[in-house]
Write a structure and sequence with these properties.
The complex is a heterotrimer of chains A (312), B (519) and C (282). Chain B has 519 residues and is an alpha/beta fold. In chain B, 36% of the residues lie in helices and 26% in strands. Chain B is built from 19 helices and 20 strands. The radius of gyration of chain B is 25 Å and the shape is globular. Classes of the chains: A mainly alpha (312), B alpha/beta (519), C mainly alpha (282).
Chain lengths: 312, 519, 282
C-alpha cells in the first residue's frame, strides 16, 4: 500500500517536472508578450521580477510545487485571478460531466456485456456485439453533433449547447450535460460491453465454474454466483483506463456543446500564452488521470485476495 | 442393482468421435477404476455421467443413474448432481474459486443440496473428516497447499452426502507423499460412508491399489474390463499388457561400464534467495540449498529425490550453470565453478534435459535449429560438421533425419522428449542432468524413453544426474540415490538398501507412499 | 498466413478488404482526385450529393469526395506513424524489461506509468503551446501515448514466454539476454504486437480526428477527416451533410480496422480453438 502511494507521488512529481520543463523551453518572453512590443525594457524587467521569472529554473519549479501543495496554483497573467479558482470553476462542469458519462456507460455497457455472454453464439449475442463494434468506432464528438441534430434541432427536447451555472438552475445545468454525457458514454459503453462479455466468456471456461456445477448449480447459476465477481477483475482495469480517457475526452466534447469546462479554459490560455494557467490546468488533468489509476490499483487489491499479501 | 449403467455411449465433437460404443456398469458400493492415457476419453466418460459435457458434444446412447435415465432438464440434472454425485477433479488450484474462502465454498455445497444440519456444525465436521483444521476454513485457496486444497475439494464433494464419488485424476498434481495420503483418504471416506467410487487415472498402480473392478480405455473405446486381479494380473488385450508392463520399470542391462573417478563434485554448495523488504524491514533470506556435498563418478547414474520445494531443481540449475551458488563451489573435471561462471567450452560438457516436453522447444523454430542451438558453445564449426552432429544426435535417439525440418507441434510428447535428449547430446557432453525426464509422459511411452536413456549412457560414456520424485524409475535406473529435504541431503545409498531399510523419516515417508506393484 | 486462414475467418477477410479499399483510396488521392482539393468555388458551395460532385461540396465549394480521399490518407499516415513510434520505441522497451528484469524493468515501468498519465490530448496541448499546432503535433502526441501500450504488450507477452524451458535451453546454449530477446522472445510476441498494432491504428485515427477537430492537429490547407468535422462544427445544424460525410467515413474505417484486428487475433491465437473440453486430456 505504502509502495503504491510512493509510486503515485513520484509519478506525479516527475509529470510536474516534465510539464514545467516543456513549458520552460518556450522561446519568447511572457512579460514582453503581456506588455506588448512597444513596452520599455525597464517595464518588462520590472514585470519579470514581479512575476518571479528571474529566479533560476529549479527554484521556480520547487516554488511552483510547494505552492501547489498549499493549494496555490499561481495567478493567471491574462485573467488576473488565482488559477486555482479558475480551474475549480471549470471543474464544476467537467467533473460532473465525466461522472455522468461514467455512470451511463456502466449502466448501459455492463448489462449488455453480461447479456451477450449469457446468450453466447445466439442471435442476441451477435446483434449486441455488432452494435458494440459500431459504437466503438463512432467519434464521441461527432456523436454529440448527431445528438444535437436529433434532440435539439429536430425534437427540441434539449438545448443545443451552452451551460447554466449550477447555482442558477440545477435542473437546467443537468439538462445541459445530458447530451454531452451521452456522447461521451457511447464509445465507452461499447468497450465495456465487449470487455465484460469477453471476461465472462473466459471465466465460464474456468475450472471453478465446473466445480460449481458439480456442486449442483446450472451453468447460468454458476456463472452468476461465481463467475461475475471473477470476471469483474479485468473489467475493473478497463474502467480505470476508461475514466482517464473520459477526462481527456471531455475536453474535446466541450467544444461541440459550448460548455465552459476545463478544455476551453486551456485553449484560451494557449492562444494567449498564459503559461501559468496552462501549467496549472495540465497538472490538474494529469493528477486526475494518475489518481484514477491509483484508485483502480487499490480497488484491485481489495477485490482479489491474492494480491493482498506481499508474497504468495 | 447397478448404480451407473452406460449402454452404447457415443460422443462426438463435430466429425470427431471421441467415445465409441462405451458400455459399462458400476454396482452400488463398488470401487470401480477407469484406466487410460491422455486422449482415451476417460474424463469425458465421467463428465457424461455427471451431465457436465460441453454444449457442443453430440451424445448418443443411454446413461442410467440408479435405474433412471439422466434427467433432460438442466436444472434437474444439476440438482441430481449436487445431491447424489460428488466430484473431485485434478487441479485443486484452479478448481476452487480464488475469491471465496474455502469454508464458504463448502458451506455453499451444503446449502445447494439442502442437506440437513446447520453449516456451522457440519462444515467443521467435514473438515475434520478430511483431515483439515478449522482454521483452514477461513483461508482462501491460494493460502493452502496442494494437498490441503484437494482435501477441501473432497469435503465439498461430500457435503451433499452423495452416493457416488467420481474422482478424476485427483492426485496427479500432488507430490508423492501427499498423493498417497489423499488416496488413502478417498478410500477411507468411501468405506466409511459406503459410497460407490469411480476412480479415473492413468496411474495403474493407484487404480490397482484402490479398486475392485477396473476398465481400460483406449482412444475412446473400452478395451477390457473385469476384476482388478484378473485384468491387471493376466491381461487379455495387448494394450493392457503394454500398460501393465510399462508400470513396471525396465531393469537395466547388466552390461555397463564400471563407475570411475569423480567427474562432478559438489562442495558445500549453498543457495540463498533474498527476500523483499527495504533496509531493516528486509526479511531473512530463504535458503533453498544448504551446504550440499557429494560427488558423481564417471558413468554413474546418480538420482536425487525429494518432495517439491526441497531444492533439487535449484541444485540442478546450478550444476548446469543456469544459477549461481551463494557459497561453496562445484568442480567438473578440472574446472571449478560456482554456476553461471562456467566457461563456454565447459558448458558443452554438461547438458540438461527438461521435464516438460511441450515447453522446451521454441514453437517458431524448426526442430533442427533448436537441437543445433547448443553447438554455438563449440565455437566456429563448419556447416558440414554441424550437419553431421545433428544427424548423429537425432539418429542416436532413434528418429529420422527428415524430422529435423519439422516444427515441434508436429510431434507427440514422447517424441519431443527424445528430441530434447538429442539436443542434450549434440555437444557430446560428459555429464547429463535430467529433471524429471519421464514424469510428463504417458505411461506407455515412459519405458521406451528410459530404455533409450540407459542405452545412451552405455554407448556414449555418459554420466547421469537424475532429479525425480518417481521412486520406481529411480529404482530401475539409479546406481546411487541422494534424498534431499529442505535444501539438505538427509540420506544416501543404493536404491535397494534405501527401499528396504530407510533411515531418515523423510525417506521412510517416501517409501511408505509407494504403491504396491500391480500383480 | 495461408488462404485457409482467410476463408475460415470471415471477419479477418472482410476487415482486411475494407481497410485495403480505404487505404488505396487514400493513396490514390496522391495522384488523382475528382477535383483538386484546393479548388475553392464559393458559387458552388453546399451542393447536395449527386451529379458531378459525388458527395456534394462544402462551405467553400470544395468537392467533398476529394476531401474525403485526401483526408483518409492524412488520417492513415498520421495514425500509422504514431503506431510506428509506439512499436519502434515501446516494443524494445518491453522486451528489455522482460529480458533483463531488475533495474531495467523498474525504469521501463516508471516511464510507462508516467506516459500513461499523459493522454494524447494533454501531450498535444503541451506541444501546441511550445510550437504551435500541426500534423506533426498529432503524430508525436498519439505516438507518445502508444509507447507504453506497446511496452506493456511486449513485456506481458515476453514474460509469459520467458519462463518456458526453451528460453532456459537457449541460455544453456550460451546465448546472452539480448540474443535471447531477439531470437526467441521477439518472434513469439510478433502476433501480439501485430494485433495490438491494428487496434492502435484504429484508435489513432479516432485520436487524430479528435485533435484536428479541436484545432491541435492537421492544419489547413492540408485536410483530414477531423479537420472536415471542425469546419462543419459551426454549420452542421443547417447543413448536416457536412458532418455526416467525414463522420461516416471515420466510422467505416475504424470498424474495418477493428474487424481486421479481431480477425487477426482469432487467426493467430491458437487458444481460441474451442471444442469444449478446455481442461486437457479426454
Amino acid at each position: 500500500m505504502l509502495r503504491r502511494l510512493i509510486g503515485f507521488a513520484v509519478t506525479l512529481l516527475l509529470a510536474a517536472a516534465v510539464i514545467f520543463l516543456l513549458l520552460d523551453l518556450l522561446p519568447g518572453d511572457p512579460a514582453r508578450f503581456i506588455l506588448g512590443i512597444n513596452a520599455s525594457a525597464e517595464a518588462v524587467a520590472a514585470l519579470r521580477t514581479q512575476l518571479g521569472l528571474d529566479a533560476p529554473a529549479h527554484e521556480r519549479f520547487l516554488g511552483w510545487v510547494w505552492g501547489m501543495l498549499h493549494g496555490d496554483f499561481g495567478v493567471s497573467v491574462t485573467q488576473r485571478a488565482p488559477v486555482a479558482a479558475l480551474i475549480a470553476e471549470r471543474l464544476a462542469v467537467t467533473l460532473p460531466l465525466t461522472l455522468i458519462a461514467m455512470a451511463i456507460s456502466m449502466a448501459v455497457g455492463l448489462p449488455i456485456g453480461i447479456l451477450a455472454a449469457r446468450r453466447r453464439g445466439k442471435a442476441t449475442d451477435t446483434a449486441l456485439m455488432v452494435l458494440a463494434q459500431t459504437g466503438v468506432a463512432i467519434p464521441n464528438f461527432w456523436f454529440g453533433m448527431l445528438l444535437t441534430l436529433l434532440f435539439a434541432v429536430t425534437l427540441r427536447w434539449l438545448p443545443p449547447g451552452g451551460f447554466t451555472p449550477w447555482q442558477e438552475d440545477g435542473w437546467a445545468a443537468l439538462r445541459g450535460l445530458i447530451m454531452p454525457g451521452l456522447a461521451l458514454a457511447l464509445p465507452q459503453a461499447s468497450i465495456l460491453a465487449r470487455v465484460m462479455r469477453t471476461a465472462l466468456v473466459d471465466v465460464t471456461g474456468q475450472d471453478f465454474i465446473r466445480t460449481a456445477r458439480a456442486k449442483g448449480m446450472t451453468l447460468g447459476e454458476a456463472v452468476w454466483r461465481h463467475g461475475v465477481r471473477n470476471a469483474f477483475l479485468p473489467v475493473l482495469t478497463i474502467l480505470g483506463l476508461q475514466f482517464a480517457f473520459l477526462i481527456a475526452g471531455t475536453i474535446i466534447v466541450e467544444n461541440v456543446f459550448y460548455l465552459p469546462g476545463l478544455g476551453r479554459l486551456i485553449f484560451t490560455a494557449i492562444s494567449e500564452r498564459d503559461l501559468v494557467l496552462v501549467r496549472g490546468a495540465t497538472i490538474v488533468l494529469v493528477l486526475a488521470v494518475t489518481l484514477t489509476m491509483l484508485l483502480v490499483d487499490l480497488a484491485y487489491g481489495l477485490v482479489d485476495p491474492r494480491l493482498r499479501e506481499r508474497r504468495a | 442393482m447397478a448404480l451407473v449403467e452406460i449402454e452404447g455411449l457415443n460422443i462426438a465433437f463435430g466429425a470427431r468421435r471421441v467415445i465409441d460404443g462405451l458400455t459399462l456398469r458400476i454396482g452400488k458400493g463398488e470401487r470401480f477404476g477407469l484406466i487410460g492415457e491422455s486422449g482415451s476419453g476417460k474424463s469425458l466418460t465421467a463428465l457424461a455421467i455427471a451431465g457436465l459435457l460441453p454444449e457442443t458434444a453430440q451424445v448418443e446412447g443411454s446413461i442410467r443413474f440408479d435405474g433412471a435415465p439422466l434427467p433432460a432438464s438442466e436444472r434437474a440434472m444439476a440438482r441430481l448432481r449436487g445431491k447424489r454425485i460428488g466430484m473431485v477433479f485434478q487441479e485443486p488450484m484452479t478448481a476452487l474459486n480464488p475469491l471465496m474462502r474455502v469454508g464458504d465454498q463448502v458451506a455453499e455445497a451444503m446449502r445447494l443440496t439442502e442437506t440437513a444440519g446447520a453449516p456451522q456444525i457440519e462444515v467443521p465436521n467435514l473438515f475434520a473428516e478430511v483431515g483439515l483444521e478449522l482454521a483452514h476454513a477461513h483461508r482462501f485457496p491460494h493460502q493452502l497447499s496442494g494437498g490441503q486444497r484437494q482435501r477441501a475439494m473432497i469435503a465439498m464433494a461430500l457435503a451433499g452426502k452423495p452416493e457416488l464419488m467420481i474422482a478424476d485424476e485427483p492426485t496427479s498434481a500432488l507430490d508423492v507423499i501427499t498423493q498417497r495420503k489423499v488416496l488413502d483418504l478417498i478410500a477411507e471416506v468411501c468405506t466409511r460412508r459406503q459410497m460407490t467410487l469411480l476412480f479415473i487415472s492413468h496411474d495403474i498402480k493407484a487404480v490397482g491399489a484402490l479398486c475392485a473392478r477396473v476398465a481400460v480405455m483406449q482412444a475412446g473405446r473400452l478395451v477390457e474390463q473385469g476384476k482388478t486381479a484378473a485384468v491387471l494380473g493376466a491381461p487379455r488385450v495387448d494394450y493392457t499388457r503394454r500398460l501393465v508392463a510399462a508400470s513396471r520399470m525396465p531393469k537395466r542391462p547388466p552390461a555397463r561400464p564400471p563407475i570411475g573417478t569423480p567427474l562432478l563434485s559438489v562442495e558445500g554448495v549453498t543457495r540463498d534467495y533474498a527476500q523483499g523488504g527495504l533496509l531493516w524491514w528486509r526479511e531473512k533470506p530463504l535458503r533453498a540449498v544448504d551446504g550440499v556435498r557429494f560427488a558423481v563418478g564417471k558413468a554413474e547414474c546418480l538420482a536425487i529425490v525429494g518432495p517439491s520445494g526441497c531444492g533439487k531443481t535449484t541444485l540442478a540449475r546450478m550444476i548446469v550453470g543456469l544459477d549461481t551458488a551463494t557459497a561453496g563451489q562445484m568442480r567438473l573435471g578440472e574446472t571449478a565453478y560456482r554456476g553461471t561462471d562456467l566457461p563456454p567450452r565447459r558448458r558443452a560438457d554438461v547438458s540438461l534435459v527438461f521435464q516438460d516436453p511441450f515447453g522446451s522447444f521454441d514453437p517458431r523454430m524448426t526442430v533442427g535449429d533448436s537441437i543445433g542451438e547448443p553447438l554455438r558453445l563449440l565455437g566456429r564449426i563448419g556447416a558440414g560438421e554441424r550437419r553431421a552432429r545433428l544427424v548423429e544426435a537425432i539418429e542416436a535417439v532413434g528418429m529420422e533425419t527428415a524430422m529435423l525440418e519439422r516444427y515441434p507441434h508436429e510431434f507427440s510428447g514422447g517424441q519431443r522428449q527424445r528430441l530434447a535428449i538429442a539436443r542434450a547430446l549434440v555437444t557430446r557432453p560428459r555429464l547429463v542432468v535430467l529433471d524429471e525426464p519421464v514424469s510428463a509422459l504417458d505411461m506407455s511411452v515412459r519405458g521406451e524413453v528410459l530404455a533409450l536413456l540407459a542405452r545412451l549412457q552405455a554407448d556414449h560414456d555418459l554420466t547421469y544426474v537424475i532429479i525425480s520424485h518417481d521412486l520406481d524409475m529411480i529404482g530401475a535406473m539409479a546406481d546411487r540415490v541422494l534424498v534431499m529435504d529442505a535444501g539438505r541431503i538427509v540420506e544416501e545409498g543404493r536404491p535397494a538398501e534405501l527401499f528396504a531399510h530407510p533411515q531418515h523419516p523423510l525417506t521412510r515417508a517416501l517409501m511408505a507412499a509407494r504403491l504396491p506393484e500391480v500383480a | 498466413m495461408s488462404w485457409r486462414h482467410l476463408t475460415r475467418h470471415p471477419s479477418l477477410t472482410i476487415g482486411l478488404a475494407m481497410t485495403l479499399v480505404f487505404a488505396l483510396t487514400g493513396l490514390a488521392s496522391l495522384v488523382w482526385t475528382p477535383y483538386p482539393i484546393g479548388d475553392i468555388a464559393i458559387a458552388r458551395r453546399f451542393l447536395a450529393p449527386g451529379g458531378p460532385h459525388w458527395l456534394g461540396t462544402d462551405h467553400l465549394g470544395r468537392d467533398l469526395f476529394s476531401l474525403v480521399m485526401s483526408g483518409t490518407l492524412t488520417s492513415f499516415v498520421i495514425a500509422a506513424l504514431a503506431v510506428a513510434i509506439g512499436i519502434g520505441i515501446g516494443v524494445p522497451m518491453g522486451l528489455a524489461a522482460a529480458a533483463w528484469g531488475g533495474p531495467v524493468e523498474w525504469v521501463v515501468l516508471r516511464i510507462s506509468d508516467l506516459t500513461f498519465a499523459f493522454p494524447a490530448v494533454i501531450v498535444a496541448i503541451l506541444i501546441t503551446t511550445l510550437s504551435g499546432p500541426g500534423a506533426l503535433n498529432a503524430i508525436v502526441a498519439i505516438g507518445v501515448f502508444n509507447i507504453p501500450v506497446f511496452a506493456r504488450v511486449a513485456r506481458g507477452g515476453a514474460l509469459s514466454i520467458a519462463t518456458l524451458d526453451f528460453v532456459a535451453a537457449a541460455r544453456l546454449a550460451g546465448l546472452g539476454k539480448a540474443a535471447i530477446a531477439l531470437k526467441h522472445l521477439l518472434p513469439n510476441i510478433l502476433s501480439l504486437v501485430i494485433v495490438q498494432g491494428t487496434i492502435q491504428l484504429s484508435l489513432g485515427i479516432l485520436a487524430e480526428a479528435g485533435l484536428s477537430y479541436i484545432g491541435l492537429g492537421t492544419q489547413p490547407p492540408a485536410t483530414s477527416l477531423g479537420l472536415m468535422l471542425r469546419d462543419a462544427q459551426s454549420l452542421f445544424l443547417i447543413h448536416p451533410w457536412l458532418s455526416l460525410v467525414p463522420g461516416l467515413t471515420i466510422v467505416a474505417i475504424v470498424i474495418a480496422l477493428n474487424l481486421a484486428g479481431d480477425g487477426l487475433r482469432d487467426a493467430l491465437d491458437p487458444r481460441l480453438r474451442r471444442e469444449g473440453l478446455s481442461h486437457g486430456a479426454g
